[in-house]
Write a structure and sequence with these properties.
This protein is mostly helical. Helices cover 74% and strands 0% of the residues. The radius of gyration is 24 Å and the shape is globular. The two termini are 35 Å apart.
């Protein structure tokens, strides 16, 4: 199970031996290549803006190069995630099971995962061979097939690392390698005459995912096995992955992620909390407003409620306790506030949904404002109402104008970040990728040169972590696209429409059923995987019942955010339990009031479309 854009903890394993010098050098080269690729993805769109403004012409091949550098980041970031055992997973696995079962489970998990990675590499090889025969060159003179080699190299590296990281014991590694080779040979050498063998392999993949295999194994493996069962070449899966990875808007994802990491490495969280505290003074609702506001701001920039809980927990829980909240209540408030920022621009799930559902990004940014504010205000209001009273409340609200001015002046440049990112988009001066590049550069400049919090080592660490995170996410998105395309080719959406239409005649019943399904999906799936897999299925269904895809997107993300709070397996509950070393049952009881409160608001968002659509309609984007 993984949080929004937050790599899950890998299955527990024995400590890794000290790496030899040659491996440290190779890893350093790998890190440097990823950092340089990210830097180039920032600089090329910026050069595009300058060239267009000054010379009335763009950078030759700039868009193509940006897209293929993003392909490099997605594959080698995924390889880096495999190196660090931080590929996105659904479960934590059973490596700590008693002997010999722990080793058996690891062999199955790593062997099947590596086998799927090898098959994806084989599909990439077939794709490269077909592209090489065309002899097509890019705008910068580089053969297109050469720019596609990260697909092959990335999957091969991931396969090897999955095997090496499964255990420090070579017998376990060799057994997993044998299983991987056997799985690959079955698919490459056997032509299934019935559906029995493909179904057996699908079952094996599902078992591996339960044992802790990465999410890309489930989605990519399902696509490969289903294509193989239908007699389709493995290269078809790679074509889908390549088309998604080089989508024109995809580079905005690593760029906005990088901006968020620059801010996280700096002192943004402390400055924002100081500012919010200064603005609300000692009013009764002040601590709740500070907590909800800080969480919403941080999640909107990082795209991950889990990162917010882990990063801000050490600051906000002691602050709430000092404001007379019991510690358990404080943990519940922080847990309940973690995913509110998912609806505020420039949060990554908003962008990914817009790409997959083929809607205007500007419309999604605007549509999330009112529902997001409604969730934030009601959460803060409830937390203020339950705050224990004291004699100080009777004295009324006092406001320190000098502290408020000082805190505002200190955080001024960070407060301009939404203005910079959204202003660049809505002014028409930049497309989403260019606006994301401007945001990343702005975040770097203010943290490195204005606040001087971002030192060279911190900058490199932020870029490495950003590349690792976005690589893991884009890897899942790319293979999920293959699975989605298979579903479309098999007319699954149209069959689903017929099925729903035959059994659900009411729009109200459809929305209620969709809410239940999305809460379950939010518990069990990474938000990006859920968008890629589920959105192509529900957008046609929404159209059947007259639901705008923009409204459906806000409904979708609000439900997924609530899924992180849904007992008993919501990811925010697990992360809060881990962060504060509290029993899961205690965190669940503390956050349950926020679940029911936000559930009511999500239903209101679902059944009142104008909450989402009025603002973009008023501004002409819907």
């Amino acid at each position: 199970m993984s949080d929004t854009a937050s790599p899950a903890t890998p299955p527990p394993q024995a400590a890794t031996p000290h790496r030899p010098l040659v491996w440290r050098i190779l890893h350093g080269v790998e890190d440097a290549a990823l950092v340089l690729a990210l830097a180039a993805v920032v600089l090329i769109p910026l050069a595009e803006i300058v060239a267009r403004t000054v010379f009335k012409a763009g950078v030759p091949g700039g868009n193509w190069l940006t897209q293929h550098l993003t392909l490099f980041i997605s594959m080698f970031g995924g390889a880096l995630a495999a190196r660090e055992s931080r590929l996105l997973t659904i479960t934590q696995g059973f490596a700590k099971a008693r002997a010999p079962w722990g080793a058996v489970f690891e062999i199955m998990r790593a062997g099947i995962s590596a086998g799927i990675a090898l098959l994806l590499a084989k599909g990439s090889w077939e794709f490269l061979l077909s592209e090489r025969t065309t002899g097509v060159s890019s705008a910068i003179g580089l053969p297109v097939w050469a720019a596609q080699t990260p697909l092959l190299a990335g999957f091969l590296i991931i396969a090897v690392r999955l095997l090496l990281r499964c255990s420090p014991r070579w017998p376990v590694r060799l057994a997993a390698a044998a299983l991987a080779a056997g799985l690959a040979l079955i698919v490459l050498r056997i032509e299934p005459e019935t559906n029995t063998l493909p179904h057996v392999l699908l079952g094996a993949i599902f078992v591996a995912v339960v044992l802790g295999a990465p999410i890309f194994v489930l989605l990519g493996g399902a696509a490969l096995v289903l294509l193989w069962g239908g007699g389709v070449t493995l290269a078809a899966a790679t074509v889908s992955q390549y088309s998604l990875a080089t989508n024109g808007v995809i580079p905005s994802l690593p760029l906005f992620t990088l901006a968020g990491y620059f801010l996280a490495e700096g002192g943004t969280s402390q400055r924002m909390i100081r500012l919010l505290r200064a603005l609300v003074g000692d009013m009764r609702a002040g601590p709740a407003i500070v907590t909800v506001g800080a969480c919403a701001f941080f999640t909107s920039l990082t795209g991950a409620s889990g990162v917010t809980i882990l990063a801000l927990g050490g600051l906000l829980v002691p602050f709430l306790v000092s404001a007379r909240y019991p510690e358990r209540t404080a943990i519940g408030l922080l847990t309940g506030s973690g995913s509110i920022g998912l609806l505020f621009a420039p949060c990554l799930p908003l962008i990914v949904y817009a790409i997959v559902a083929d809607v205007e990004i500007k419309a999604m940014f605007l549509a999330g404002i009112v529902p997001g504010l409604l969730l934030a205000v009601t959460t803060a209001a409830w937390a203020a109402w339950i705050r224990p009273a004291s004699a100080a409340d009777a004295a009324g609200w006092t406001f320190n104008a000098r502290e408020a001015f000082a805190a505002t002046r200190e955080a001024f440049w960070e407060l301009l970040i939404p203005v910079v990112s959204l202003g660049a988009i809505f002014s028409g001066l930049a497309n989403p990728v260019e606006a994301a590049a401007v945001t990343a550069l702005y975040a770097f400049v203010i943290e490195a040169f204005v606040y001087r919090d971002l030192k060279p080592r911190s900058m490199v660490h932020a870029m490495k972590e950003s590349g690792l995170l976005i690589g893991g996410v884009l890897l899942v998105l790319a293979v999920a696209q293959s699975f989605t395309n298979y579903l479309v080719d098999e007319q699954v959406p149209s069959r689903l429409i017929d099925l729903v239409q035959a059994h659900v005649s009411s729009r109200v019943v459809f929305i209620i059923g969709l809410t239940v399904v999305l809460l379950i999906v939010g518990c069990l799936m990474d938000v990006f995987s859920a968008i890629i897999v589920v959105v192509p299925l529900i957008v046609p269904l929404g159209a059947l019942y007259g639901i705008s895809p923009v409204h459906l997107g806000i409904l979708f993300l609000a439900n997924l955010g609530l899924g992180f709070l849904t007992p008993p397996v919501g990811m925010s509950l697990f992360l809060a339990s881990y962060r504060f070393n509290r029993p899961m049952s205690e965190v669940l009881r503390a956050s349950l009031p926020y679940f029911w409160l936000q559930f009511a608001i999500v239903l209101l968002i679902s059944f009142w479309p104008d909450l989402s659509l009025a603002l973009p309609r008023w501004l002409g984007f819907s």
